[in-house]
Write a structure and sequence with these properties.
The structure is a single chain. The strands form three sheets. Strands 6-7-8-3-9-10 form a six-stranded mixed β-sheet, sandwiched between helices. A four-stranded antiparallel β-sheet has the order 2-1-4-5, covered by helices on one side. The longest helix has 16 residues, at about 170-185. Helix 8 packs across helix 11 (about 295-300). About 40% of the residues lie in helices and about 25% in strands. It is of the alpha/beta class and about 300 residues long.
């Protein structure tokens, strides 16, 4: 059974010319981090809101933990934790009070709710903020508190909708560490983000949305290899000698530079440099070019006018 599964999930808003989410089908395994990428307006937040029962789908099916989000929304809500971009909480309450209240709403007795609040504050590095009012927290501390609120009832599946937006690099990496620890406990995570580095660092698999449609899916490595070319670039004074040693018929030549297309840039660079050195061919510089997730994202989501530019 998949932790999250959608089949042709669609959402069309009244009066809209096209669906916000258009027949998207994904399957996320238990204990997997699935990263969902896409430019603004691509349908990421709408997709998440349907899965967490905040929006009703127009068509298609969605199951979380094997439970239908349309037929049994209350049961789905008992299985999930959600951290959205804008969460309304009382800024006057302390972190501990807020977590205890969340625990009580989730069905915990007062004692267990207090214990769980202290456990989460300690686990997420907020133990020194136990009595601090929410309004006094930094951006990074607030996002960790948002994550703690979504974990009070020990959910099977957690949805993080752009959880690090606006955070400084240090706070972002601290939150990444918490997400990894959460995954390591067996929790399934669906993460939406506009930070390509974040998806590359965290996601076991990545889906890319464009105009509501899923246009690519795979591991970061698979997506990079699908959309880009690995190359070894050599700066050397004698191109002909290098070509003779390497027995290459086809390579890009540019003044004192040789550019070779390869399947694995790092491994090939070592092999090529070793052959040239052994043959006494001077190499001034060697570097590798590998496709990045940025290349994939631009290739898959750019508009026709952007490509033309």
């Amino acid at each position: 059974m998949h932790a999250i599964e959608t089949r042709a999930l669609t959402k069309t808003y009244v009066g809209a010319a096209s669906p916000a989410v258009d027949a998207v089908s994904v399957a996320v395994a238990p204990g997997e981090i699935y990263g969902l990428l896409g430019p603004n307006g691509s349908g990421k937040s709408t997709f998440v809101k349907m899965l967490v029962t905040l929006l009703a789908p127009t068509a298609g099916q969605a199951h979380v933990g094997g439970i239908s989000v349309t037929h049994e929304p209350r049961l789905v809500r008992s299985l999930i934790g959600v951290t959205l971009q804008d969460v309304g909480v009382d800024p006057v309450q302390s972190c501990h009070e807020l977590l205890v209240a969340q625990g009580r709403v989730s069905g915990l007795a007062r004692g267990p709710a207090r214990d769980r609040a202290e456990e989460l504050l300690n686990a997420l590095g907020l133990v020194d903020k136990i009595a601090a009012r929410v309004s006094t927290l930094s951006g990074g501390q607030r996002r960790r508190l948002d994550l703690a609120l979504s974990l009070v009832h020990r959910p099977q599946v957690v949805f993080l909708d752009e959880p690090t937006t606006g955070l400084d690099p240090s706070s972002r990496r601290a939150l990444w560490a918490e997400v990894r620890r959460l995954r390591d406990t067996g929790t399934t995570i669906l993460l939406t983000t506009q930070y390509l580095e974040e998806a590359d660092e965290l996601a076991d698999r990545i889906g890319i949305l464009k105009a509501g449609s899923l246009v690519a899916e795979g591991t970061a490595r698979q997506l990079k290899e699908r959309r880009g070319q690995h190359q070894v670039v050599l700066d050397l004074p004698d191109l002909d000698a290098a070509l003779l040693v390497l027995d290459l018929d086809v390579a890009q030549r540019n003044d004192r530079q040789l550019i070779i297309d390869v399947e694995d840039a790092e491994r090939s660079a070592v092999q090529i440099l070793g052959r040239l050195t052994s043959a006494g061919v001077q190499v001034d510089r060697v570097r590798t070019i590998t496709p990045t997730l940025d290349d994939v994202f631009v290739a898959m989501t750019a508009t026709d006018s952007e490509r033309a530019a």
